[in-house]
Write a structure and sequence with these properties.
The protein has a two-stranded antiparallel ribbon. It is globular, with a radius of gyration of 13 Å. It has helices at about 20-25, 55-65, and strands at about 35, 45. It contains two helices and two strands. With about 60 residues, it is α+β, with helices and mostly antiparallel strands. The longest helix has 10 residues, at about 55-65. It is about 25% helix and about 10% strand. InterPro entries: Thioredoxin-like_sf (IPR036249). This is Thioredoxin-like fold domain-containing protein. It comes from Ancylomarina euxinus.
Length: about 60
């Protein structure tokens, strides 16, 4: 699906995703989970809207990322 939809965002998938070090570090408890990180790798929004949600664009514009 990622290739078919030409999704360029970083996509992480694992059969044990919720047990991974990434999930622990970024407090991921549910999937799918959308997180906005700044260029330094810090969490800006741990509960970001889905990419299809128009509010995401508004949020990114407000954050100036």
């Amino acid at each position: 699906m990622i290739q078919k939809k030409d999704m360029t965002e970083i996509q992480l998938l694992s059969d044990k995703a919720l047990e991974s070090e990434f999930a622990k570090a970024y407090k991921v408890y549910t999937i799918p989970r959308f997180i906005i990180l700044n260029p330094e790798g810090n969490i800006v929004d741990a509960n970001a809207p889905f990419p299809s949600n128009p509010k995401l664009k508004e949020l990114l514009n407000e954050l100036d990322l």
